[in-house]
Amino acid sequence: MRNGVFFLNFPQLKIGHMVPKFPIIQGGMGVGISLSGLASSVANAGGIGIISGTGISIEDLRFHIRKARESIKNKGYIGVNVLFAMNDFAEKMKVAIEEKVDFIISGAGISRDMYAWGRESGIPVISIVSTARLAKMSERLGASAVVVEGHEAGGHLGTERPLFDILPEVVAAVKIPVIAAGGIMTGKDIAHVIQLGASGVQIGTRFVASHECDAPLSFKEKYVRAKQEDIVMVKTTVGLEGRAIKNHFTSQIAENKKVKIKKCIDCLKNCSYRFCTMDSLVTSMNGDCENGLVFAGAKVAEINDILPVQTIINNLVAEYESCQLA
Predict the structure, then answer these.
(1) Which of 79, 85, 32, 93 shows the shortest CA–CA distance to 287?
(2) Is 21 in a helix, a strand, or coil?
(3) How is the beta sheet containing 241-245 ordered, strand by strand?
(4) In CATH, what number does 24-214+302-321 get?
């Protein structure tokens, strides 16, 4: 209570050995968007950082894990995001375990092996789910927590249902911590999902427009300039829809049109080969944000500036605390 007004206090998030200052996890965004720079900055600011293993080599993943560790000033937590749909899934899991990351998070499918590997190494494994059924399955197989992702998220989407519809179902279905993701942009959004039973949040889009994000400036500026009418849904070669910011490339692949693949590196377990999703993401990572995919969340148009990670988290905390209890 301050000046006669009650304020909400953040719940204490605990996943395995991790007890962060704030229950805020930074989303793992590939290709090359969330690497050691962003992950370590979020960890230093009191959240939990994630390095995306998608689209980078085994050597680069190892490098960024070690670099992030060196950049963390106090006790901070970093994990690695590995996608089950990728052919190098097992290799990336092995590297993350060898480097003793604080946790591993995985989406685009569920593997029994990843939970077994997590148990053997003592590293928490977190699943990204979009239904209560998958959440219960993940818990039964050994997940330490689940991230429930609604349709508002950026990138590939596993559901057409909004987060606020799915979240209560998942909370009721499992006993492990439930992290809410998709369309979380403000402290008020965080307050809403906490009241619905979430133990914490995962935020991706807002952290892209940060000074420390590993994306090129042209990518971040695409976020700042985006208007609501610039958001489009695209069908990628993964077989899922994804939310992206409109550009020349999205017009090229509209209405199931094909784009010639320069060189296939056989990165996906299942691919439609209509274009190269990986190449389109690498193109944007390299700074050409008109001829590659620029994934973003549903609320990207609310971003007006590029800020330091610490300022973003401070703003989220202040906004959360200002939500008066009813």
Answers:
(1) 32
(2) coil
(3) 155-156, 241-245, 231-235
(4) 3.20.20.70
